[in-house]
Write a structure and sequence with these properties.
The complex is a heterodimer.
Chain A lengths: L25 H9 L4 H27 L20 H13 L7 H19 L6 H21 L15 H27 L4 H15 L3 H15 L8 H27 L2 H9 L4 H16 L1 H14 L11 H11 L8 H31 L6
Helix pairs in contact in A: 3-6, 3-13, 4-5, 6-7, 6-9, 6-13, 7-9, 8-9, 9-11, 9-12, 10-11, 12-14, 13-14
Chain B lengths: L1 H18 L8 H8 L2 E6 L7 E2 L5 E2 L1 H14 L5 E6 L4 H6 L5 E7 L2 H6 L2 E3 L4 E3 L1 E6 L13 E6 L3 H12 L4 E6 L2 H9 L5 E5 H10 L6 E3 L7 E8 L3 H19 L7 H4 L5 H6 L6 H4 L6 H9 L2 H8 L29
Parallel strand pairs in B: 1-4, 1-5, 9-10, 9-11
Antiparallel strand pairs in B: 2-3, 5-13, 6-13, 7-13, 8-11, 8-12
């Protein structure tokens, strides 16, 4: 449809560009130039508009016009020709958010989420004062608070077993723990792989290659099915914790390779300069090499994090209900809500929620990259 | 650094181990009583058998078995910790002691009963492969399905069962095969075949997702055996007895006309069978390590088997599964419980 980039030629031919000739500027001219410049383009434009129109109107029709917004069970949505069953989402929204977390205790999940969002915002928005303290709070204090708030059992809070957790809450817990815990692991592994000490190097290589050679789903299976068999009789430990460890180790190994890519891109001169200044190894890495290396690999890191965020749905294979898991459970098991349109509506909803988070992450990373990369723009 | 990792892992393991009480040698009943909760493995979600409602409370036929056992042990049906399990995890969870009762639509087969370390304690639901057809066909029995086209998933026992059944009855059919269940359902819904076949319990839930549920009927024939029931770890006969007899008590209650509503009147009954069941006579409860009102508590919590069935999968639910093979033996079904004597 578009004619290419040979634009703005007509206007600039005149020596004194006082006004463009009539019909060569404005939206109409743009349309004529880009959309209707030849019979083929006219045909393509019409075709394109028709495709957009039919699909958008069909979606609009399904999601809004014919949609069912209220109702107490599936029979409301099972009527002939009804569209999306939003009533189902409305009835299950709490469950999709918190899983089976006791209703009276949900403020704890909310508080945790609010604290996390606050800390994250403090870290992400430049210009927030005392960034160091914000970082200490978000990375070290917050996880401890979150742990005690969510699991309870102390400080007069009722204990909530992780079997009751679910929905978006579990998705966020798995993703955030995966991201936060995997990052230090990855940095250590990446440095270990480039270490001069053979034992450290081989151990890192061995770990990375082993974990990367195994699908995440296998790790989760191992953690949930095999591990209990190796433990003594009657000894169990939390399924979610098992999954979290699996996810963190897995993501750590992947991320380590991304970071190693960044390390390799740092010119030798940087290392030598740091050595020449007499910096110790931790200082050399922490002050000179890592900041440059990490900046280089931001796209790769974010890519891994987005992939991890979506991979969290794999935990449903071991009976933990993340957002997708709980949506699937509600769709496939609550006979009260069975109707032809329920599954589609629910999956569209789940997809949309995932998209919001992933898109948000990617936009933030893009912005961050631009901000950090000011000096390197070409 | 690896050492650090290992130390971290070890620390996690040790805290985990310390948190779990040591209870390897004790009997399951003692363990359950000490813990104050029955740890019950259920399906991650299957309509009518184990499904969380809008509020997140578990309900269903399999869930009611957990509740009944908890009520018999604790006099309180809410003392259950539900552990949703996938098909692959279920046996490990039982063997490792993560759960004490597996009530997760598990088919009772010889290999599972003898070599998988399980003891099945009864059949709570007689499932089996059935057929669903459009009412317009006017078919009333599977015997009339000669020359019909059948939508079926390829590579499953379902496919083989259909082939066997039609050969045994000297009928022909046209298979329309698909890889995945959703495709199969969609094809049937679009009218690409006359018949959809799957396990009967599933047919009823599939029916509700079709364009017009009321246009379809499930034929009465069941052509395969899928006896579903609860299972416990092998090697603890006392616990197996408890689970077995709690279920038998529910079936006996239906046979004797005891419901959750008339339960208290029934305790005054003169009928010796009722008196024995409800603990008015004899020490049957004490005999299995519980108190004599064990059956009373179980029935109070979930009702008799008929009530349980009707509420979760039968007439009172949206699934509307007919009793069929799950009717009492005297009504032409297969549910039969030995007497309490």
């Amino acid at each position: 449809m578009e004619k290419g980039s040979s634009s703005s030629a007509t206007g600039s031919m005149q020596p004194t560009p006082s006004r463009p000739p009539p019909g060569s500027a404005g939206p109409l001219a743009w349309a004529r130039k880009n959309l209707f410049s030849s019979p083929l383009n006219v045909a393509l434009t019409v075709l394109g508009v028709w495709i957009i129109w039919t699909s958008v109107s069909a979606i609009y029709d399904w999601a809004i016009v014919r949609a069912v917004f209220t109702g107490s069970d599936g029979s409301a949505c099972a009527k002939d020709g009804s569209g999306a069953c939003w009533a189902f989402i409305a009835a299950k929204l709490d469950q999709f958010t918190y899983g089976r977390y006791p209703e009276a205790e949900r403020w704890r999940a909310n508080l945790t989420m609010a604290l996390g969002a606050l800390g994250l915002a403090g870290l992400m928005i430049p210009g927030v004062p005392r960034k160091g303290w914000v970082a200490v709070f978000t990375l070290f204090v917050f996880p401890i608070i979150a742990y005690f708030l969510l699991t309870g059992g102390s400080f007069g809070l009722k204990a909530v077993e992780t079997e009751l957790w679910g929905g978006l809450m579990v998705t966020l817990v798995v993703a955030v723990v995966g991201i936060v815990a995997s990052f230090p692991i990855a940095v250590l592994l990446a440095l270990g792989r480039r270490s001069q000490l053979p034992i450290v190097r081989y151990a890192s290589v061995g770990f990375i290659e082993f974990v990367r050679g195994v699908p995440l789903i296998t790790m989760l299976f191992m953690a949930s099915v095999m591990l209990p068999l190796f433990l003594p009789d009657g000894v169990t430990f939390d399924k979610l914790l098992r999954a979290l460890i699996g996810v963190a180790l897995f993501e750590g190994a992947y991320l380590a390779e991304v970071i190693r890519g960044g390390l390799q891109a740092i010119p030798r001169g940087q290392y030598e300069a740091a050595d020449a200044l007499g910096l110790s190894y931790p200082k050399k890495m922490g002050l000179v090499v890592m900041p440059q290396a990490l900046k280089l690999v931001i796209p790769g890191i974010v890519n891994s994090f987005i992939a991890l965020f979506k991979d969290t749905s794999l935990v449903l294979i071991i009976g933990i209900f993340d957002l997708l898991g709980i949506v699937q459970q509600a769709v496939s098991s609550d006979a009260r809500w069975f109707s032809p349109s329920t599954p589609l509506t629910a999956y569209v909803f789940a997809g949309f929620v995932f998209w919001i988070f992933c898109f948000g992450m990617s936009r933030y990373a893009l912005w961050m990259e631009r901000r950090l990369g000011n000096g390197q723009q070409r | 650094m690896i050492r650090m990792l290992k130390a971290m892992l070890a620390a996690v393991l040790v805290t985990g181990l310390a948190a779990a009480p040591a209870m390897a040698a004790d009997s399951t009943l003692k363990k359950v009583k000490d813990l104050g909760k029955l740890s019950c493995g259920v399906n991650t979600g299957i309509a009518g058998f184990s499904a969380p409602d809008d509020k997140g409370n578990w309900s269903g036929l399999d869930v009611d078995v957990c509740k009944a056992v908890a009520a018999a042990v604790f006099k309180d049906a809410s003392q259950v910790k539900y552990v949703p399990l996938t098909a692959k995890e279920r046996f490990t969870a039982l063997q490792s002691g993560e759960i004490d009762l597996l009530s997760r639509n598990t088919t009772w087969t010889m290999s599972r009963d003898t070599s998988a370390g399980l003891t099945f304690t009864g059949i709570t639901y007689f499932d089996g492969q059935g057929f669903m057809v459009n009412k317009e066909l006017g078919v009333k029995s599977a015997k009339e399905l000669s020359e019909a086209s059948i939508c079926v998933q390829t590579g499953t026992t379902t496919e083989l069962n259909v082939a066997d059944y039609f050969r045994q009855n000297g009928m022909n059919y046209k298979p329309v095969v698909f890889e995945k269940l959703p495709e199969t359902i969609a094809a049937y819904n679009a009218g690409r075949c006359d018949v959809f076949t799957s396990d009967a319990s599933q047919l009823y839930s599939v029916r509700l997702t079709l364009g017009k549920p009321d246009d379809h009927i499930v034929l009465p024939e069941v052509i395969s055996k899928e006896p579903l029931g609860p299972a416990v770890r092998q090697g603890d006969p006392q616990w197996a007895n408890i689970v077995r007899w709690v279920f038998f008590a529910l079936v006996n209650a239906e046979e004797l006309g005891i419901t959750s509503k008339n339960l208290d009147e029934m305790t005054k009954s003169e009928n010796p069978e009722i008196r024995r069941l409800l603990g008015q006579e004899g020490d049957y409860g004490v005999g299995i390590g519980l108190e004599n009102d064990w059956a009373y508590q179980a029935i109070k919590a979930v009702g008799n088997y008929g009530e349980m069935f009707s509420r979760n999968v039968g007439a009172e639910s949206r699934l509307k599964i007919s009793r069929g093979q799950n009717a009492l033996w005297r009504d032409g079904g297969l549910q039969y419980a030995p007497p309490i004597r």
